[in-house]
Amino acid sequence: MAAAAATTTTFLPPVPTPRPRLAATVRRPPPIFTGAANDVPPPEDEDSSDDYDGDAAAPRRSARKDRRRAVRIAWEKLVRWSRSWRRRNRSDVLETTRKVVVLGGGSFGTAMAAHVAAKKSDLEVSMLLRDDLVCRSINNSHINCKYLPEHRLPENIVATTSAADALAGADFCFHAVPVQFSSSFLEGISTHVDPKLPFISLSKGLELNTLRTMSKIIP
C-alpha cells in the first residue's frame, strides 16, 4: 500500500494595511536677527493645527488674525518712534568736546594725545606731565624728546606740569599713567579732579601690592 504523502500548510499572518498619515504641522523656528535695531522684524505667530480643523476653528483663526494685526500695528508704531527719537537725539561727541586731558607723557599717552588732537584742529589737548624738559619740548618744538622723538605732534597739544591748569574745563580724561604708579599719582591731583569728569583708562594690569584693577584705582 502506497504511503500517503504528508502535506504541510504554512499560514502567514495578514499584512497590515498602512493607515494614511495626517499632514504634520510644520513649526518654523523663530527668526534670527543680526541687523540694526530699526530692522528688527515684527513678531510672528506660530502655525497652529487649527487650520486643519475646518469651520469649527474659524473663530479661533479670526481672533488670532486680530491679535496678529494689533501686534504688527503696535510694532510699526514703536519702530517709527525709535527712528524719530534717534534723529532728534543724534549728536557727535567730538563736536561737543572742547578740551581733553591726558595724564602721563609716556609713549602711549603721547600717541593717544596726538591721535585725538588730529581729529579736531580746535580741540584743546592738555598733557599733564612731571618732566619739565619734556614739557618744554612739547610746547616749544611739538616733539616729545624722550618718547617718540621722531614724530611731530599737532600744534593743539599743550603740555603742563600743573594739575589745576590741565584739568580745568576738561570734558574727558585719558589716564595713561602706569598701573603701579596710578594710586599715588591720582592722590596727588585728587583735589583738582571734578567728580563728574569721565575717565578713560589706557593703563591695564593689576596693582601688585593690592591686586586692584584700574576700575578700582580710579575714583
Written account of the structure:
- This protein is of the alpha/beta class.
- It has 2 domains: 37 residues; 125 residues, Rossmann fold.
- It has 7 helices and 5 strands.
- It has a 5-stranded parallel beta sheet with strand order 3-2-1-4-5.
- Helix 4 links the parallel strand 2 and strand 3.
- The chain is elongated.
- 16% of the residues are buried.
- The N terminus is likely disordered.
- It catalyses: sn-glycerol 3-phosphate + NAD(+) = dihydroxyacetone phosphate + NADH + H(+).
- GO terms for molecular function: glycerol-3-phosphate dehydrogenase (NAD+) activity; NAD binding.
- One of its GO terms (cellular component) is cytosol.
- InterPro entries: G3P_DH_NAD-dep (IPR006168), G3P_DH_NAD-dep_N (IPR011128), NAD(P)-bd_dom_sf (IPR036291).
- It comes from Panicum virgatum (Blackwell switchgrass).
Tell me the distance between the termini. Answer: 121 Å
Strand content: 5-15%
Radius of gyration from the CA trace? 37 Å
Regarding quaternary structure, how should these chains be classified?
single chain
CATH homologous superfamily title of the largest domain? NAD(P)-binding Rossmann-like Domain
Strand order, largest beta sheet? 3-2-1-4-5
The number of E-state strands comes to 5
Shape: elongated
Largest sheet: 5 strands, parallel
Low-confidence stretches: 1-5
The number of domains: 2
Helix content bin: 25-40%
Average pLDDT rating: 81
* Topology pattern, helix = H, strand = E: HHEHEHEHEHEH
Q: What's the tally of helices?
A: 7
